[in-house]
Write a structure and sequence with these properties.
Shape: globular
Number of strands: 25
Bound molecules: 5'-O-[(R)-(benzoyloxy)(hydroxy)phosphoryl]adenosine
Largest sheet: 9 strands, mixed
Strand content: 15-25%
Strand order of the largest sheet: 2-1-11-10-12-13-14-15-16
Structural class: alpha/beta
Radius of gyration: 23 Å
Number of helices: 18
Length: about 550
Amino acid sequence: MSHATDLADLATGFTPHPIDSAIRYREAGLLATAPLWQLLDAQVAARPTQLAVTDASVDELGSLTYAELGAAVGRRAAGFAAAGLRPGQRVVLQVNNSLTFAVTALGLIRAGVVPVMALPAHRIAEIAHLAVGADAVAYISEDGRRGFDFRDLARELVSLTDSLTMVFIDGDHAEFAPLPDADPAAISLPDSADPDLPALFLVSGGTTGLPKLIARTHADYTFNATRSAQICGLTNADTMLVALPAAHNFPLCCPGFLGILTVGGHTVFTDNPSPDSAFEVIEKYRVTAVALVPALAQLWCAATEWEEADRSSLRLFQVGGAKLAEPDAQAIDLAFGDVVQQVFGMAEGLICYTRRDDDRATIHRTQGRPMCEADDVRIVDENGAQVPDGVDGELLVRGPYTIRGYYRAAEHNQRSFTADGYYRSGDLVRRLPTGDLIVTGRIKDTIVRAGENVAADDIEENLLTHPGIAQVAVVGLPDPVLGEKICVAAVSPIGFGDELPRLADLRRYLADRGLAAFKLPDDLRFVSALPVTAVGKIDKVALRGRLTEATTPA
Ligand code: OOB
């Protein structure tokens, strides 16, 4: 295929903004005209000697300045081009947090090759699905040094997919190719890109079914990074710790690695988010900002009781990906000094932030408000009619950086988008008169018990106020009499010494808080940990499976 055909192929099955919206967004200055890699080029020119990236798991030579990062990215891009990868072609990238991640992801983008940002926890089912869906020509990963051998996955993948002809492996590459580098002066790289074509693919974070491909364009992702960095007040004096998997939208671009790139700051990558390791990294590099999911944030808070490393440099503690309970938000502020920020976002687009100058109560209680004035949020009832402020409804969204359709998923798009182009998030939210949003649950997360609809999040929120419960998930399990019974899976707080609450205690507790009798749980299991998704959110599908297995007689 010629380059033009590769780009035409990339555009097939991609849903752009309608032309009038694209013009309006561009006129408002929200959609860039430059390719995404321009973010790096600008910093290489502006501050070549400043530190750009550090790999916390490498003791020596683990850092690159902007000039060095620019050069490494150029060589990697040239290497991919020399290996035969062409602009517009898709590749699946699955690399743990490291300098290799930074150089390889940016190298692909610089070469015009479009990475599918797989998470390290994905396995063959997800990777094969993504590779086939994107018609990927290459898989890029690493060896077995981190406890899982991605070369085995590569072997299976090659046997399952027709389009895939190249595998590049970081480290011990076995029968595959090593990550390529070449002299950029000797090979031609694209000097521009259509800003409204995909620069990369994110994968959807849903816990139902296989991940879907989310095309993010040069223009919309540049905006996502730039606006996020502004809202979070990042400057080139900031150091961002990327502790969640870097391929996820949150640590990648909200503001994350790409956001800090827009202001010329420093990113430190770690593949170990546990507090004992991460706190040392914070002390060593004077980290100022970090993004975590709620379960990790809880762990970090608890660890401040015994970990001694100096964390006083932290000024921005972002939590998102799942609902942060108000007491947990307060606990973070107490333990780290008024630094918490809630982030409610989705790979599909919309990002909401609490703002630095909001009062602490708003920051503790809400999930923030949209980052862009052109974000068009509607909250609707089950008939699609808009609900007033203060009333729960499903969040629909349309805007400059929100997709108009999943990639090559026409049938799915019929369900996930309205006729006038809004993305149906499936999230239940409530808008306050201030514009701040409170996420109250998922529309499908209800248990039908003896004919009554019970919202799992209602019970969860109430249980989280109980001192004997640190984390909780409420799911419906099949029951011959009730149809579904309400099962509580709970984790007790670290160091919780007293006797664990029993089912009868919790039923009484909830009844005292005013919950209706039909909402009181039928079953209680204490577990050491709840199953989580690839980025660390509670995975109810897996949990239901586990609990059903545990109750089904053999
Ligand atoms: C982030 O992105 P995804 O694509 O992995 O997951 C999106 C979904 C949302 O639709 C919502 O159901 C849930 O995750 N979610 C939250 C939340 N943040 C995300 N639910 C309650 N409270 C929050 N703060 O998870 C993501 C992407 C960018 C930034 C932050 C998170």
